[in-house]
């Protein structure tokens, strides 16, 4: 049973996740997954099951958080819904496949590979020449279809909403302005999270050793604690994002990517740093 200190930790985590989602167009997995994993293993759950439950529950938290963020960004005119829907629907189906693969691979391998990919994306985004403000995003829907496949698969594979991957692709390759990329990525996450959650629930049904209040690899208690605080905080993040210049928002996002990449690889653990 989760004790009061763990409940408080999850509530605080939800606040941070919601703000990050609205501000940067990311699902906040770099906060949620480590905290959930710590809570579950500290209460006696097997580490292999714990990391899968953290992935699955994270995706379910991303769903209402992304929905809240997308509504806020739509009001600001920053969501390109045609692109978001094509990316999202395509990503939802490939996210199903990603969740299936994740249920049969060691979590440590998955997080290391993804951490390296995130760092590569951060370097690319930092060194790439920003698109001119007069450029418009591509209108080729087939391009969005093709990018939705790998992005959605990655979301399901390691239980993330995918904003940390989507935004660099949208800015560097698809020629989105930064605010458009952040807003549209929240819309895409609505779809990819649905696909991933479905897969984690199905793959976890009948597994022994799951924590209380779980449906497959999704824990409802942790979901309520995280989503209950993250959804309203997403609106605060949205308002903050639209008060920051795009250049500053870009650098904040790069910093988040670097931290997330190092965290998932395990660099901070190797160095015995409590971050």
User: How many β-strands, per DSSP?
Assistant: 2
Into how many domains do the coordinates divide? 1
**How do the SSEs run, as a string of H and E?**
HHHHHHHHEEHHH
Helix content: over 70%
* Biggest pleated sheet: 2 strands, antiparallel
Determine Rg (CA atoms, Å).
17 Å
The shape, in one word, is globular
How many helices does DSSP assign? Answer: 11
Q: Which residue ranges are poorly predicted, with pLDDT under 50 across at least 5 consecutive positions?
A: none
Separation, N- and C-terminal Cα atoms: 26 Å
Q: What spatial order of strands do you see in the largest sheet?
A: 1-2
Query: Into which percentage range does the β-strand content fall?
Result: under 5%
Structural class: mainly alpha
Question: Mean of the pLDDT scores?
Answer: 84
